[in-house]
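Final paragraph of the annual report: two paired records, presented back to back.
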Amino acid sequence: MSDGAPEPVAALRRIAFLLERTRAQTYRVKAFRSAAATVLTLDPEELRARDAAGTLRELSGIGSATESVISESLAGRMPDYLSRLESEAGGPLAEGGEELRAALRGDLHSHSDWSDGGSPIEEIAFTAVEAGHDYLALTDHSPRLTVANGLTAERLTEQLGIVEAINDHLGDEFHLLKGIEVDILDDGALDQSDEMLEMLDVVVASVHSKLRMDADAMTRRMVTAVRHPRSDILGHCTGRLITGGRGTRPPSTFDADAVLDACAEHDVAVEINSRPERSDPPDELVALALDKGCLFSIDSDAHAPGQLDFLDYGCARATALGVPHDRIVNTWPIGRLLEWSAG
């Protein structure tokens, strides 16, 4: 194979990654991930023989586009599809924030296909390793969010065993952290037992329901959640949507002074959610959190491996808004991070 031409599985995975990065339609991404999974199970000689005989498309998950990628890779050429995507979508997603992006050691909000993510835990963990992360928190949803296939205590317990197995496999250079994005219930309670939350490394507490609740009630709800001893990060605090396929949604109303004072008092980080449709919290709330001495966490909220690169957006915003690096918990080394989250 010539220099610069990826192996078929690598080419297919890279295409899927770039498509996810640009929020392409799910069926397009799945076509390439499915083809990569099929090729991975084949003996290389069988793959070459099928390519020579023109029978690749007899295999499950191989279509015309993925067949071309495989054939070009086997011939030692950069696949045209991949070359085009690299030129269109391979660069930084946002201008500015490069120094902060390089300083981030990990990401504390991500989802797998155990809840509403699109890929297995292993795929998103391996992609985080390839991205140079020291750690990634797996934070699938909690039970009440049934629309997102939230994890019961039993399913979460099972997932934690898989996280441990992945960490055993990867060794000490990378840590897949045990986490959850736990729903903040109407009264401010967290949607998982304290016993389960104690087993986790990172707890992101977020509001997902009744986003138009009366401001006083929403304030009490959020402050109660922030005061919970196992809350580490307040996720996408206003719940707003500013663009994207789900339409737009105004921010929730609450007493920002009270909520951010609680975050500062209880050492709960305010999430700068990097999803472009969220870009949450708004600039004025980031500035207020800065004034109050809050910590921050810049997170991708990735629902697919390629979306781990959404950190570019959050880093560009945080840099423009003057957030100091040391106030961002995921610039910290793993030891300091875990000491903080356990506190």
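The closing record of the year follows.
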Amino acid sequence: MRRLTSLSGIFGPLLFAGMVITLTILKYDFLRGLGWDPLRAPTFDWPSGLALGPGGGWMTATFLLCGLLMSLFALRLRADLEPARVSQIGSTLFALAGLALMGLAFTTDPTIRSTPATWHGRLHDTSFVLLGLTLLPAMLCLGCAFQLDPRWRGLAAYTWITVALAIPTYALKGIAFYIFLLAVLVWSEVIAFRLLKLN
């Protein structure tokens, strides 16, 4: 079970990245019809819009599964780190970020529409905000927790640098959003491989 929950931190980001890339290629014309442009409007109904239209169920399932895997990984990380308050807060926020990722499974509303916002569209938008409000603070706290643990200390600065890079790209949107997404996914993989190595 220890190894399985450690592997969840490796498999989750890979699954998310693989599914987003695959669906973006397969649904390219559909996304362009929503108003998305990979360079000029990269966050316009992306990646959430991948859950709309034909094959959208695959993205919905990805949100659910990857969120679950993130929460399991967070709980495993909590059990491994030194039992300090900052590690408990960081891992709890990380687990909540996983739940927020699962909340993205509520289907988004297209930005360009003639109908009022739906309840599931509002829940999707709320989940996206909660993801940002939990994930980045979780990483900051985990960086502090890593600093307190000799086995993890080498990843403290890397974690803080990733957050410093991620915050402006998350806020700026645009093409910088790709950098945010890549930085967080790579950080997750690095932390997961370290956890797997320690166990």
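Residues 2-198 form one domain. This concludes the annual technical report; the extension proposal builds directly on these records.
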